[in-house]
Structure formats: C-alpha cells, structure tokens
User: What shape does this take?
Amino acid sequence: MNETRILSNNNRLFSGRLQAAGPQIAQRFSLRFVFGGTELCKIGRRFLGIQNDTFMVLNAGTNFISTLDEGARILVIEFDADYLNCFLSIHQESETIFVDETSLIPSLAETIYPFKMEVKNAVLRLKAYLDEGGDNEDQLNEYVERCLAAYYNVYRDEILEKAKNLNFLHYSTRLEILRRLNLAKEYLYANSSSNLSLEGIADHACLSVNHLLRTFKLAYNESPHQYLIQLRLQRAQLLLTKTEYPIYTIVNMVGFKCTSSFIRLFRTRYKTTPLKYRNVLAA
Assistant: This one.
C-alpha cells in the first residue's frame, strides 16, 4: 500500500511502490531509499542504482526515469525549500573548504551515497513508525530532522572531506573533478556485478585512465579496483545476511569470478569465512 504524508512544515513523505511510471520530475530536494530490491534511476546519461546499501539524493527540478524491482518499496523524504534553507543556516560550519561556497553544493549533492549506520538508524526508525501507522506529527518531524542531519554528515564525509584531499588550487577545478569522480562512483555502484574495465570507467567519467587513477586515489584513498572489490564484498555480506543463496551463487551475483578468491578477500576484510559468518548469524 502506498502512503503519502504532508506535514505542516510542508515536508512530504512517501512510502510504497513507484508513484508513477515513465519520466518524472523531482519537485523538491529529496532523499530516496529502497528496501527489498533495487531502484534504477536514469538522469540524462547517468544511471544511479540504489540498493539496500545505498541511498540517493535528487535536486528540485531534476528530470529522471525510475524503475523498481518487483516487490521492492521506496521511502522518499521531500524537503520544503524554506525548511531546508533554515536547516542549512543552522548547520553552516564556521570554516568552509572553499572560499564563498555554500554548505550544500547542489551539483555535487545529487548522487549515490553509502547507507551508513547513522543514516540507516534514523531512516529505519522513520520507516517503522510509518509502517505502524504512527501519526504524531511532532514525532514525525523529529525523525525527518534526524534523517536530514544524518544525511548532511554523510555529505560532508563523501563530498566536502573528499574535496580536501584533492590538491588543486582553484575551487572550480576541484568542483569539476569531484563531479567527474561522482560519475565514476555511480558507474561502479550501478555496474558492480559486471566485468568492468578502467577504460570504461574513465570514459564514463570523462577522464583519462591516468587522471582517473590519480584523482580517485586522492579522493577515496584507494583505486577504483579496490573500491569495487570492497563494494562487492559489502554486497556479498548483505546477501549472506538476508538470503539463503549458496556461496557460489552469491559469488556470481556480486561479480566475482572465483569462489576461492572471494573467500580469501572476504576473510581478509571480515576476519572470518563467508560460511562461518552466515552460521554465526543463523545461530
């Protein structure tokens, strides 16, 4: 069942299946989360895939086309412009990274983000309250503000902190490099189970291979290949937790070609084997 809540401060909540088929326009700055499947959003030439380990931000006025897996549900939080501006004015840091920058850069905010624990806790509380039919507006407002504050912390980690790592003098250069690195990151998320090449990633990000390698390492402290491996391991961990698929099936689903290599990499990261990890959860 689909449910829409419009709060007295004009923030809007939607929970359920897709609101409409075909092209859509984001009416407001919004956070989008998906549960039980994948949502794929096409924005121009960009494909942004949202799963249980990610969420997406859309700016007001963005045209997009969305498809959702059968059985999957979305939670969308749309923020009133005045509410958002008030929030940002309160959370504006005393020192900014770039001269004359705002605390939220629209061109960089609209991308995929990792569903970090702070965001997950806030969003799951909101979702549970909505699923239970909760209608206390003060409680809803508190949950929504927690979600926005948690997102803002992730934004600072994923965008502003990454900017500090780029050793370009001019603000406009850093902004453009970050925009292109976001394209590379989105490409990795949307195609993590595919056989990717550095040339393909660089071409999608409009960078040379050497420039991609250098700037990606500066921003994320690891190469695109290392980033992809960690993403695949993270998604394998979720599948081990949420499904009963055999190990070899999960290996293929997340994009690994060799089961023994996957087990070795999983053990290096999580200090246990995939089977032991699953058995501990089952116990």
Summary: The domain at 3-165 is CATH 2.60.120.10 (Jelly Rolls). The longest helix spans residues 137-165.
